[in-house]
Write a structure and sequence with these properties.
It contains 18 helices and 2 strands. By secondary structure, the chain is an all-alpha fold. Helix 1 packs parallel to helix 7, helix 1 runs antiparallel to helix 8 and helix 13 packs antiparallel against helix 14. 45% of the residues are buried.
Length: 429
């Protein structure tokens, strides 16, 4: 695996996983802020921004074709340049009110991003030996998380700064809501284009195209075997129920957090600016989420999933109460709002870790990589389905009653966790 002429992993691993993260967060997070600021009704916003995440649910169905058609490097570069074009078109269409076309390109970006995930992870395994794979696993994770901060914090702060007005070299720049999004999304597309061009030179050429290609019939046969073995695993019904229900409260909150922060106080929100949302929720909140994830991972590895699972579930669900408090009291203090966001996101980081650990446990065995991919598909489905109606529920109920409903939805999440925890063996470290 070593070659003097091969680029160092430092030349491409960080940028590859930053590039993997940015389109994902643009589709699943930035779209919510974009459509909310552009005035799309919350019911439609929640419905459409949930539907465009569908490709991550079904990507296990076409992942085998990425393995047998051309090379992983070819797929990575093709999907990257395709996403650059899609994000540029989004910049030109969405802010000008062409919502239908924008949703089409959001969906195409999602399909390309999901395909890129498959190819990038496969390329990582091929281009690095086991020692380097282990050495760089923390680097790839870190830069994926940096992509999260970039999208949910830096991009929103830039949008807000352009709307409020910024001064550069004596020139004062202040734009409308729509123009600020055009500028920021075009800038994001340009950045992704530079990274894609860099990868055209920096990604090592470690593969040769397989001359003995599998036929489509053979590929579909392998998919059928994998699916059959997955649905025949002991406890499959309970596992699927857990993956669909465990994140139910979060699934309802996910599409309404940013609209709640942005909505004026007379409509039940907190009346924050998009720049403040980027700083508080996308910046500090994401950092607290990452901290919770680190602590959750350490606790799970040292104590075992069976001992920490219920506690992590409570950490995921109960902090939803801070939204009930914020909706009722509508605090003016930014310190209180930041503290509430920190509590909720820290709890999310802890709780999400339990979900990942359980899916790794359940997927273990033959076809474990494919089975884990199927587990994540069910997890994404569990996030998507409640998101479809979250905005409609808020429109009917208002923020206070909606957040109380979220708290009620913590009950089935806790119940399914207790049932699953009892089914786990004692030695599950």
């Amino acid at each position: 695996m070593k070659s003097k002429n091969r680029p160092s992993p430092w030349a491409w691993v960080p940028t590859l996983y930053f590039m993997e993260g940015v389109p994902y967060f643009i589709v699943n997070s930035v779209s919510v802020a974009l459509f909310t600021q552009l005035g799309m009704p919350l019911g439609k916003m929640s419905l459409f921004t949930s539907l465009i995440s569908f490709p991550w649910i079904v990507k296990p169905l076409w992942s085998p074709f990425v393995d047998v058609i051309r090379t992983k490097r070819w797929w990575v570069l093709l999907m990257q340049f395709f996403m650059v074009v899609c994000v540029a078109l989004l910049a030109l269409l969405a802010p000008k009110g062409y919502f239908t076309l924008a949703l089409i390109f959001f969906t195409l970006t999602a399909f390309a991003s999901a395909t890129h995930d498959i190819a990038a992870d496969g390329f990582y395994m091929i281009a690095l030996d086991e020692k380097r794979q282990s050495a760089f696993v923390g680097i790839r994770s870190t830069f994926y998380k940096i992509a999260n901060i970039f999208c949910q914090s830096i991009l929103l702060v830039l949008v807000g700064a352009l709307q409020e007005g910024i001064t550069i070299g004596g020139w004062s720049i202040r734009t409308s809501v729509s123009r600020s999004w055009v500028i920021v999304l075009l800038g994001c597309s340009a950045l992704l284009a530079l990274i894609s061009l860099w990868h055209a030179f920096a990604l090592p050429k470690v593969e040769q195209e397989n001359s003995e290609r599998k036929t489509a019939k053979e590929v579909w046969g392998e998919i059928g075997v994998t699916l059959l073995s997955f649905f025949r695993k002991p406890g499959i019904g309970l596992a699927i129920a857990f993956m669909l229900i465990y994140r139910l409260p979060e699934a309802l909150l996910l599409k309404l957090c940013v609209p709640f922060f942005l909505s004026p106080m007379e409509k039940g929100g907190l009346g924050l600016t998009i720049e403040q949302v980027g700083q508080f929720y996308g910046g500090f909140g994401v950092v607290m989420m990452l901290l919770g994830g680190i602590i959750g991972g350490l606790a799970g590895s040292r104590l075992g999933l069976k001992k920490v699972m219920l506690w992590m579930c409570l950490c995921l669900t109960l902090p939803c109460a801070v939204y009930c408090y914020m909706a009722i009291c509508q605090p003016l203090s930014h310190s209180i709002i930041i503290a509430c966001i920190g509590v909720e996101q820290f709890g999310y980081g802890l709780g999400y870790t339990a979900c990942m650990l359980y899916m790794m446990y359940f997927a273990n065995g033959e076809h474990k990589t494919s089975h884990f991919s199927l587990c994540t598909a069910f997890m994404f489905l569990g996030l998507m389905l409640p998101g479809l109606i979250a905005g409609w529920l808020q429109e009917k109920m208002g923020y206070i009653d909606f957040f109380w409903l979220v708290m009620v939805c913590c009950i089935p999440s806790i119940i399914i966790t207790v049932v699953v925890q009892r089914s786990l063996p004692q030695s599950d470290k």
